[in-house]
Specification:
CATH topology of the largest domain: FAD/NAD(P)-binding domain
Strand order of the largest sheet: 3-2-1-7-19
CATH architecture of the largest domain: 3-Layer(bba) Sandwich
Distance between the termini: 60 Å
CATH superfamily of the largest domain: FAD/NAD(P)-binding domain
Number of helices: 9
CATH class of the largest domain: Alpha Beta
Radius of gyration: 22 Å
Mean pLDDT: 97
Bound molecules: flavin-adenine dinucleotide
Low-confidence stretches: none
Number of strands: 26
Length: 405
């Protein structure tokens, strides 16, 4: 009988692929099985609303590893294979299209799925959601034929798709229930910067109004807004948030609360079960609460941390949350986690959109966003991490080094 251990990773995602890589880097000699329902090897999703969607780069740019990586590193990549269920008692998973796998440790990296609208007409053809490579390919093909795209939802995905479509020369309308795009994360004041950006690039904005439904014969031809406005188009994309893919936990006793609940070591309370990436609601030592992050950097960095802990190390995931976005000629990075704040401080030129924005709560920086200003994220993250009160005047003053604060 073999004493070789088997580590199974459910979800051949960014988090899963980085975990597999780390297991080998750390010298693990057992079996590593990476199970993914998609047909392709693991890839990063950010290009799917940006350069890949616009047809400027191919799949290889998005792939986490080169084609030969998995074989070279003895990682068993089971593509087009779904983990159907988990049995934590027997320590095995059931696969579709067939078979079972026993595991010593199991990492769940099943990610998230777009929230779907249920308004009348939501199931008409021509309404797209964007998450996977195949959904991106379908949208890209449809965009090539379309003349007017209507985007429902002014979050990150909706805003980036709107920008990409404009860059591709399409007419674009953006519908958002909040007063400005990105209001949920950035607040109304800073979100206005993105409203103006899209308006300047010719996006027809419908803000502060929800969607009643879609109309069309056979396929969507218009979206009807709550105030009665009818916005016509020949292609529709909905980006109204995502939900964690926790379906594998059903009936297992693994705790779920807005994602799989794990501690700062990314361990669930069920022995041998770990979670990383979009699916994980992990305790964050800096913010002293559980946070489920839907960011590229969390997947990139939590995968390796989970892998190390599966090997018996004790590494807490305490990285300050980070994400980035590119829209037209605006590039931004956001570090921190702000759910409420009482002050917004600007350093730089807000009008030219070369600025660092800080969100403060009771005098401490809870998040910062650099817009077309670079190489400052470490300093911003350090400010968030220290949780020490800062002088807003010095924070706003570009002559004061951020590292001196
Ligand atoms: C279009 C787009 C653009 C984005 N842009 C940015 C950006 O600019 N900046 C940023 O910070 N973040 C961005 N993100 C978010 C970022 O891509 C995600 O945070 C990241 O992909 C999460 O990675 P993950 O490893 O947790 O899971 P995912 O990438 O969601 O992958 C999970 C994988 O698991 C598979 N799976 C699920 N259940 C099973 C099962 N039972 N069996 C087998 N396989 C299963 C899924 O099919 C999927 O392949 C973007 C996301 C999208 C969709």
């Amino acid at each position: 009988m073999s004493s070789r251990q088997t580590f199974v990773i459910a979800g051949a995602s960014l988090a899963g692929a980085k975990a597999a890589e780390t297991l080998r880097q750390e010298g693990f000699e057992g079996r590593v099985v990476l199970v993914g329902e998609e047909a392709v090897r693991p890839y990063e999703r950010p290009p799917l609303s940006k350069a890949y969607l616009r047809g400027e780069v191919g799949f290889d740019v998005a792939a986490v590893h080169g084609e030969g990586f998995y074989e070279e590193n003895d990682v068993e990549l089971l593509s087009s294979t779904t983990v159907r269920s988990v049995d934590p008692g027997a320590k095995k998973v059931v696969l579709d299209p067939g078979g079972e796998l026993g595991y010593d440790e199991l990492l769940l990296c099943t990610g998230a799925t777009p929230r779907r609208l249920s308004n009348p007409g939501s199931d008409l053809a021509g309404i797209h959601y964007l998450r996977s490579l195949s959904s991106c390919d379908a949208l890209r093909d449809a965009l090539a034929e379309a003349s007017k795209l209507v985007v429902v939802g002014g979050g990150w995905i909706g805003s980036e798709v709107a920008a990409s479509a404009r860059q591709m020369g399409k007419e674009v309308a953006l519908v958002e229930a909040a007063a400005v795009p990105l209001e949920r994360v950035l607040g109304a004041e800073v979100g206005a910067m993105f409203r103006d950006l899209h308006a300047e690039h010719g996006v027809e904005l419908h803000l502060g109004v929800g969607v009643d439904g879609f109309g069309g014969r056979g396929r969507a031809e218009e979206v009807v807004l709550a105030d009665g406005t009818v916005v016509a188009g020949d292609l529709f994309v909905v980006g109204v948030g995502v939900t964690a893919r926790t379906e594998l936990t059903q009936g297992t006793g693994i705790a779920v609360d807005n994602g799989i609940v794990v501690d700062e070591y990314l361990s669930s309370a069920t022995p041998g079960i770990w979670a990383a990436g979009d699916v994980a609601n992990a305790y964050h030592p800096v913010f002293e609460r559980h946070i489920r992050l839907e960011h590229w950097s969390a997947a990139l960095n939590q995968g390796p941390v989970a892998a190390k802990n599966m090997l018996g190390q004790r590494v807490a995931y305490a990285k300050v949350p980070y994400f980035f976005s590119d829209q037209y000629d605006l590039g931004m990075e956001y570090s921190g986690f702000a759910t409420s704040w009482d002050q917004v401080v600007y350093r730089g030129d807000k009008e030219r959109r070369e600025v660092i924005v800080f969100w403060l709560d009771k005098g401490t920086v809870v998040a910062g966003m650099n817009v077309n200003v670079w190489d400052v994220t470490d300093d911003i993250a350090a400010l968030v991490e220290t949780r020490r009160p800062v002088d807003p005047g010095r924070l706003a003053d570009p002559s004061v080094e951020l590292s001196a604060l």
